[in-house]
Write a structure and sequence with these properties.
Chain A has about 775 residues and is mainly alpha-helical. Chain A has 30 helices and 9 strands. In chain A, α4 (about 85-110) runs parallel beside α8 (about 155-190), α9 crosses α10 (about 215-240) and α28 (about 690-715) packs across α30 (about 740-750). Chain A starts with 10 loop residues before the first helix and ends with a strand. Chain B has about 250 residues and is mainly α. In chain B, strands 1-2 form a two-stranded antiparallel sheet. The chains are: A mainly alpha (about 775), B mainly alpha (about 250). The interface between A and B is medium-sized, with 15 and 14 residues.
């Protein structure tokens, strides 16, 4: 561009040319057909690219012609010496031109239209206007270089947009917004709408902000959100009354998808989160409780009926809203608790009616209960893991529920005992065709999962130990692999202190077998040492096995010989060990010659002792038997009952009542017979439950003492509350200690001078080194 | 003593025998009087002493009066005689205070050391002086700090030698005695509760904590914290009071 030296510029002429050009430009733009949404054509207007379209050519050629003239005119105006510098005037002229255009053409056309038509017109006008601004800015460009900066004014393009905003937008924005919202409503109700149109309208809202989205947010987004809230609130109110929970959820999920889609297609992305949250709130948060608690279709019904798809949807939906899963897990806990407690009540009722009927052919109610609880656990754990994505809240909810009813007792049997009995029952079936190895393993695994909910784990361990002893010694049902498996689970849950003893028990028996063959070798080598009766002895390590009372039973001669023979053998091979004989655990095979035929009886040692007395006398009274054997009354009744009042009546009892009394007389029943050649006459065990509970309580006292001392030794001084809390926490793996008991142990430790109270604060204890 | 010359040593010994003072005091007085016995006596007696000096001969006499003929201790008979001389009931709590001053190991007996040491501390060497001191000793029970010390002392004193705990009957007796001095309205309920529910010996911890309980917990038990470190027996007592409606508790 040639630089002119300052010369007189014909201002009037220049201005006229300017005005003409603007007018011409306006007309051309007016003459444009329906503003194409085709971006290509739009670009042509803005660039110098030649197109084949004749119309564009004419516009472009005109503009090219005018360009130089206009540019130089303006340049001249601007570089005139101040105060003749016309920059300010030009700037004003620029704005005026635009505003005139808006006033004369744009506004009237917009005012004359409504709704969608108005929107279409708006978009057309806006695009036109932008072209206008672009060209005029080019013309007046020189102003941008110096004047605008000097006076800190808006650059030309921005000034142009501002004019549109102040004149058109401010007036029309309400109507525009209403039209947009109305279209959205229609779409929500199922109609197809002109999405690209809306997209463009939204663009206007954004571009009008010149970099800031405030106009969009205030004038469109906010009213839209409000309207959305109202819309979905209405929908939700309707649906919650009419629809079932699954139906409602389906609709909600569908709607959320639609809204997301809507934003993606024609709203600004910043709206997405606000809009979705808005909808989620209306559809999900507001009605959550009502929805979940729907009588026949709510969460509880879905859980009960196993509707996994609906449950998964439920989880998906409610995990989106804040605190959404709180109520879900509460209901979950409530329901599972109710189911579990109902099972317990059933068992309780069955147990009391059973007592009344005195039948014991079927499985005990306690056994059935454990089985059912395991099934319950499978079902609901399944939901949590597969349908609720193993979410922590739901896991916790499950745990809470199970901890409630897994600690209830039935007919006097604690849950620890019931579980131990269940496992015992399963292990005894090993080797029979009833359950395969795999089934046993899975059942045991599931049963042991329940252990984590039971508070008195140490009680379970002790019962298990007692039952293991019976299995190993009496019933010979033990399969080493299964036994070790259950011990592994126990170790995982409670640590090694219980399982190590029981593992020792299992090992003892393996060793016992080896020992027995040594004994047999010894007898073979020393025939004179043979006692005359076949004898097999199991030597058990005291610490591993439950404690047994050794009895003062007076043994029959045959058995005494056996004991002596074994003692000699044992002393010859092992030094420094003392043997305590536990006759209550022994079994005996006796040949009984009845009138009809001989039958081999498998009995307990006590029973054998009684029977052998009848080798030297046909009839014996209760008192005589007791005197000869030196048994306690409790044992007497038990043993005699099993021989005379139970299934196999080896002895006759006079009088023939069902119970044994100290006045009874017993006689060998020579008339007895059975189709089998060998029968087992069982001796029911003494009820050991009380002893087990006593032993466990004693161990607990020691455990609490030990932990208190350990804690205090490391902390030196500790407040009462913290001590109690730490104690409970550290012991929780094994059992749930009673706070009162802990307090008592603390006092005992004070008396024994392990601890003392702090002089200043009696609430604080100090460790006495 | 060995730094002094022989003559001085003799004087110190004489001085001590007559005044019953300690070696240090004797040396001090004699030095101040330039080793003149008479002057030393003047100085000694004119000084304002916090406690009066006792005559060790008198103390011996007193001890011998009450001592048991066969054992070198004052036993029950001796104590009865002592109380008689003092014109005081043997059950009077002031005897507990006396025992406390003497650091007596067990009730109903005083060793020579305990008796003489205690009286020396109190500045008593005659029965008259003893009697005069009684009202002072009674007043000591009103002092919070001293009462607590006496109370806690009473446990060790009242229990059997070699036992760790205090027999219930004895404990109840002691409580009745002690809480007559320092009024605690719940003492009767406490004793009744123990006889009905506990019926076993009392541990030292329970004994000492009971005083704290009586001092800090109000009669409505409104500030009683069952989560706190109160001994188990006291928790039971609170339960007992609430169960029997003796106290209406308003849980905080």
């Amino acid at each position: 561009m040639p630089i002119h030296s300052p010369k007189t510029v014909d201002v009037e002429a220049g201005m006229a040319v300017l005005k003409q050009s603007v007018t011409k430009l306006t007309n051309i733009l007016e003459g444009l057909p329906e503003m194409p949404f085709n971006t290509m054509e739009y670009m042509l207007l803005c660039t110098y690219v030649v197109s084949t379209d004749s119309f564009s050519l004419s516009l472009l050629s005109f503009l090219r012609l005018m360009m130089d003239l206009l540019l130089s005119t303006i340049y001249d105006f601007c570089t005139m010496k101040t105060p003749n510098d016309l920059s300010e005037q030009l700037y004003a002229e620029y704005k005026k031109s635009l505003m005139d255009y808006l006033h004369s053409t744009v506004l009237p056309s917009l005012r004359s239209k409504n709704d969608e038509y108005m929107l279409k017109e708006l978009v057309r006008r806006w695009l036109n206007y932008k072209v206008m601004v672009r060209w005029l800015s080019r013309f007046f460009h020189y102003l941008d270089r110096y004047f605008v900066k000097k006076k800190a004014l808006l650059p030309l393009k921005e000034a142009g947009i501002t004019c549109f905003r102040d004149l058109v937008y401010e007036e029309m924005k309400g109507k525009i917004k209403d039209a947009v919202i109305s279209l959205i409503y229609q779409e929500r109700e199922g109609s197809q709408i002109d999405r690209p149109l809306l997209n463009n309208v939204v663009e206007i809202f954004i571009q009008i902000g010149l970099g800031s989205k405030q106009y969009y947010e205030v004038d469109l987004e906010a009213p839209l959100l409000q309207d959305t809230a109202a819309y979905y609130s209405r929908k939700a109110s309707k649906w919650i009354l009419e629809d079932s929970c699954p139906e409602y959820m389906l609709k909600a999920e569908e709607r959320l998808k639609q809204e997301k889609d809507r934003v993606d297609h024609y709203l600004d992305h910043t709206t997405k989160q606000k809009l979705i949250e808005n909808v989620e709130h209306q559809l999900l948060s507001v009605n959550e409780i009502q929805l979940l608690e729907k009588e026949n279709s709510g969460l509880i019904a879905l859980l009960r009926d196993g509707k996994v798809d609906d449950l998964e949807r439920l989880y998906r939906l409610f995990s989106r809203i804040p605190e959404g899963l709180t109520h879900v897990s509460q209901l979950f806990t409530q329901h599972v608790k109710a189911e579990g407690t109902a099972l317990v009540s059933q068992a309780e009722n069955a147990a009391s009616s059973k007592r009344a009927e005195k039948r014991d052919a079927t499985d005990s109610p306690q056994l059935v209960l454990i089985r059912r609880i395991i099934e319950l656990h499978d079902k609901y754990m399944g939901y949590v893991q597969e349908n609720f994505q193993n979410h922590t809240l739901l896991n916790k909810a499950l745990k809470e529920a199970f901890e409630v009813f897994c600690n209830k007792s039935v007919a006097g049997s604690s849950s620890a005992e019931m579980l131990a009995s269940f496992c015992d029952n399963v292990l005894r079936k090993a080797g029979s065709e009833k359950l395969s190895d795999e089934e046993i393993d899975t059942t045991l695994e599931k049963a042991m999962k329940l252990l984590s909910y039971i508070n008195d784990k140490d009680l379970f361990a002790e019962f298990s130990r007692k039952k293991l002893a019976r299995r190993l010694l009496f019933d010979r049902y033990a399969n080493e692999d299964h036994e070790r498996l259950i011990l592994t689970y126990l170790k995982q849950q409670c640590g090694g202190q219980f399982s190590s003893k029981m593992e020792g028990m299992v090992t003892d028996l393996t060793l016992a077998k080896e020992n027995q063959s040594c004994f047999e070798d010894y007898l073979y080598a020393n025939p004179h040492a043979h006692p005359g009766t076949e004898l097999s002895v199991s030597v058990l390590t005291t610490g591993f096995w439950p404690s047994y009372k050794s009895s003062d039973l007076t043994l029959p001669d045959e058995m005494i010989k056996c004991i002596e023979a074994y003692k000699k053998f044992y002393e010859s091979s092992t030094k420094n060990r003392k043997l305590s004989w536990i006759y209550s655990l022994g079994t005996c095979n006796i040949n009984a010659k009845f009138d009809a035929k001989s039958i081999e009886l498998t009995v307990a040692t006590y029973q054998a002792a009684v029977l052998l007395l009848f080798n030297s006398a046909d009839r014996l009274s209760y008192a005589e038997i007791k005197a000869q054997l030196n048994l306690t009354d409790e044992d007497m009744v038990r043993v005699l009952h099993s021989l005379s009042c139970a299934r196999y009546k080896i002895l006759k009892k006079a009088p023939m009542t069902d119970t044994v009394s100290p006045n009874d007389i017993f006689e060998f029943n020579s008339k007895f017979t059975d189709k089998m050649r060998r029968i087992k006459v069982p001796l029911p065990p003494v009820d050991e439950n009380k002893k087990v509970i006593e032993d466990v309580n004693k161990d607990r006292r020691y455990a609490i003492d030990a932990y208190i001392v350990r804690i205090m030794k490391s902390r030196k001084a500790l407040g009462h509350q913290q001590l109690v809390l730490e104690c409970i926490q550290q012991l929780s793996r094994i059992f749930k200690p009673d706070v009162k008991l802990i307090k008592q142990r603390i006092e005992d430790l004070i008396t024994r001078e392990f601890l003392e109270r702090d002089g200043e604060d009696p609430n604080v204890y100090k460790y006495i080194a | 003593m060995h730094k002094l010359g022989r003559g001085h040593r003799d004087k110190v010994q004489q001085f001590m025998a007559i005044t019953g003072s300690s070696e240090k005091a004797a040396v001090q007085a004699l030095k101040a009087s330039d080793w003149h016995l008479e002057g030393a006596f003047d100085i000694f007696y004119s000084q304002p002493h916090i406690r009066t000096v006792t005559d060790s001969r008198h103390l011996e006499e007193l001890y011998n009066r009450y001592k048991d003929p066969y054992v070198d201790m004052i036993l029950v008979d001796g104590i009865t005689l002592l109380c008689n001389d003092l014109q005081v009931d043997p059950q009077d709590i002031v005897m507990l205070v006396v025992s406390w001053h003497m650091k007596a190991a067990t009730m109903c007996e005083f060793s020579r050391q305990e008796f003489i040491g205690g009286l020396q501390y109190l500045g008593i060497d005659t029965i008259e002086k003893f009697r005069d001191k009684l009202s002072y000793m009674r007043s000591e029970l009103k002092d919070e700090q001293k009462f607590r010390e006496i109370y806690n002392f009473a446990f060790g004193w009242a229990k059997e030698k070699g036992q760790k705990s205090l027999a219930l009957d004895t404990a109840i007796g002691m409580w009745q005695l002690l809480f007559a001095e320092r009024h605690w309205p719940l003492v009767d309920h406490w004793c009744q509760f123990l006889q009905v529910r506990h019926n076993k010996a009392i541990s030292r911890d329970t004994w000492s904590q009971l005083l704290e309980f009586a001092k800090t917990v109000d009669l409505q038990l409104s500030n009683y914290d069952e989560e706190g470190a109160w001994p188990y027996l006291i928790d039971e007592f609170v339960e007992y009071l609430t169960e029997n409606g003796i106290v209406q508790r308003h849980q905080n």
